[in-house]
Automatic annotation (TrEMBL):
Annotated ranges, domain CAAX prenyl protease 2/Lysostaphin resistance protein A-like: 170-253
UniProt superkingdom: Bacteria
UniProt entry keywords in alphabetical sequence: Membrane, Transmembrane, Transmembrane helix
Regions that span the bilayer: 41-65, 85-105, 126-145, 182-208, 215-234
Organism: Isoptericola chiayiensis
Name the UniProt record assigns to this protein: CAAX prenyl protease 2/Lysostaphin resistance protein A-like domain-containing protein
A Pfam family hit: Rce1-like
Amino acid sequence: MIRTSLQHRWSGFAEPLAAQLRIDRTGLTPVPRRWMRRTRWLAWAAIVLLYAAGWGESTVAALHVLAGAEPARVELGPQTVQAQALQLAFDGIFVLIALGVLLAFRRWPRPSTPAEPATWRARWRTFFVASVAVGVGFVLMGLAAKFTENLIAYPYPDVEGVAAAVLRGAASAMAGPMEETALLGVVVVALRRAGYSWIIVCITAACVRVPFHLYYGWEALLVSVWAVLLVALYRRTGTLAPIVAEHATWNLLTTPQIAEVGNILKITAIAVGARIAITAITPRTRRSDNGSR
């Protein structure tokens, strides 16, 4: 009896969840067959080149930390006002290039766009659910660290004055546009246009997201869960901008100067996002039954 009841409860949760995950609102269709081989070469070339330009140095630094180098001795970021400003300029140019690549794959050789643009309500909901995806990744890393006792805190470099601290916060927030445009948007759009399955998309998204997070330790392998959840969210909603905004906000709230308030806001966003996600996967008939009691 108990086993049957548990099976019924699981199926009542798993089936609506699977139904939600099967929804594809990206509007991405493979290019014509005669363009397929060329598109595949271009897709992998774009992903590799963008990764090397944006995170090649960070990956090397993360691997040094993972190998035992002192985080403070590894150059993980600029510290002066001038260096921070230059980094922001580089990041801005990189985002524009990545966005151009994304749009090129969307429109070449024939446009492939969502049938209906996401509503503002859908965008706000996506923002909060993205917080859940990121939060799940960090929670899993924290739980793994309880067993390994090896999690390394992010080695924030010292800054010179208030101006440099403000610019560092801005530079930290720029990780949102950089990562989500190149490592989510380009990966999904380019590979789907090239005819690859969603499984290949998820594997690639995880592979490009983990390496430069390895300064946390081997627990950073669990960042792959975060990456896959964001792919699923992008597929389900068809909108990238809220995911970009959420990542930028998350990083900004992690800045040491506002970390205490930031943690409260992040937990609140996760709670709101969890409520939205649970409501979406709960069958309406069950919600109606509960409401009538």
